[in-house]
Amino acid sequence: MQIEASRKLGFSANQTMRTAQKLYEGIEINGEPTGLITYMRTDSVLMSKDAIEEIRGFVSEKLGNEYIPTEPRIYKSKAKNAQEAHECIRPTNIRLSPEELKKYLNSDEYKLYEIIWQRAVSSQMASAIIDQVSVDITNEQDIIVFRSNGSSIKFPGMLAVYQETKEEDKKEDEYDKSSLLPPLDQGDPLNLIKAETHQHFTLPPPRYTEASLVKKLEELGIGRPSTYASIIKVLQDRDYVLLDKKRFNPHDRGRVVSVFLENYFNKYVEYDFTAGLENQLDEISNGKLYWKEVIQKFWETFKQLCDETIGKSNREIIDVLDNALGPHFFPPNGEDKDRECPNCKNGRIGLKVGKFGGFVGCSNYPECKYTVQFNQITDAKNGTLTNPKEIGIYPETGEMITIRKGPYGLYMQVGEGTDEKKPKRVSIPKNFEPDEIGLNTAIQLLALPRKLGFHPENNLTVSAGIGMYGPYILHNKKYKSLEKTDNILDIDLERAIELIAKPTIRGNATLKNFGEHPQEKKEITAHDGKYGTYVKCGRINASLLGDQTVGTLSLEDAIKLINDRKVKLGQKVSKKKKDKVKTVNSSKK
Fold first, then answer.
1. Residue 175 lies in a domain
2. Shared domain check, 471 and 548
3. Which of 8, 46, 208, 264 could form a cystine bridge with 213, CB 3.0-4.6 A?
4. For the segment 471-486, what is each residue's pLDDT rounded down to a tens digit?
């Protein structure tokens, strides 16, 4: 589920498990809470006999008997340490199709339920019959011959419901993949529409995506479906990796930790050790091993190794790390200046340790205060920058302009600064390529903000600069962000006035006011948010369901969304107060 949701929907493992939890907890259908899927923290592929029969009956009814195999399909797990105490992840009621539930689910819930439902149904369907086809295409003289290998579907079978995503990491070149071909007969004439040439290069194996990493962990027997999401989250939270374009790139901090463990705790980072420990935990839960014996055996060797490592000097450990990581942090440049300090020019830069962790610094410290934190020595494009990139001398101070990477992205800095005075800095806009920035461009960016002129309506100054949120226009104490196509160095007064005149649309702008909630006594409004349109009443936000739109939503619909959301959050729904009737006794005493 996590792998397919990542490939098809682009969901992270954490997002998939959160959404699956909501489907497992269920929704209210016809006044009754209904769980939509079975327990989702399992890697079991077993399905109950009742569920199998229900699916076979459903397929036969909807598609015909030819779409069900003669015998039910029984699957076995390929995972080394599969836990099959639970059923596989499947819908609790196969007749609750995704389309029927769409109006009750938000976008993420609907998409994930659709995958679970389709995979469950297709798992009990007949196999597709696909003919492998090889077509030779020649010119009239039979001199030129092109061959196309592909396939054609003879009987769709399970493909009528679901087609699993192909392993994205096997081949990167689309021209090497077989494809479906249309029906062809020998001798059919073909018209040449266009001829293209393509050059092929051998590429290194691609980096892991969330889907391929989860699959690899599963193959190695490391972790469980319930822990894959937390494993990936820890890697990102601790800054060991960077997720860029859906692929994991190792960060410098992650490299250092990895090299340290490989050199001093090698046994505990081997795949077999982790998988073996998982098996021992399974045997403990099955009563085959006594937990104290397992812990005691582990602790004795682990503590001994910890004591040995603690006994080593910091200098010894740093030297080991420096030698191992040198080719990454300081790749050879062919000039025998791989480790030359860019600041003092005669010091040697290397790995060092301070009270806030590791960093790269100069051997002439404290005379030279050149330092770069881990994860700030990363090149803007491929993650292998040796030092801050030097651009040239800043004419006002005579100091070097460098490009660096900080926690909020790339920036330029003049000199190194001192404890008393911070160096001059400016962020690099996203539409600037760092390796194309020359000295002239750098000086112009460092000179920002710049005055563009005066606004014709009020004669107030209009200026352009770069701030915390990127390039901006400033007028009458109000900021306006530049659009992606605008260049902060080229923008003129005319374009700035045009941007100022455009209305600012904020993410929380009110799209519609439905009126007051009768019980809450607060207005219900509609807004556009990160995950789609929602209604808001006080602190309660509720997403629109299925095909609901702001235009068709009534006050009653909005009240129901708010009330349902409060129930889901475990809050009480205020009931409409009844008018109190005062009874007067008319009898006279």
1. no
2. no
3. 208
4. 999 998 888 989 888 8
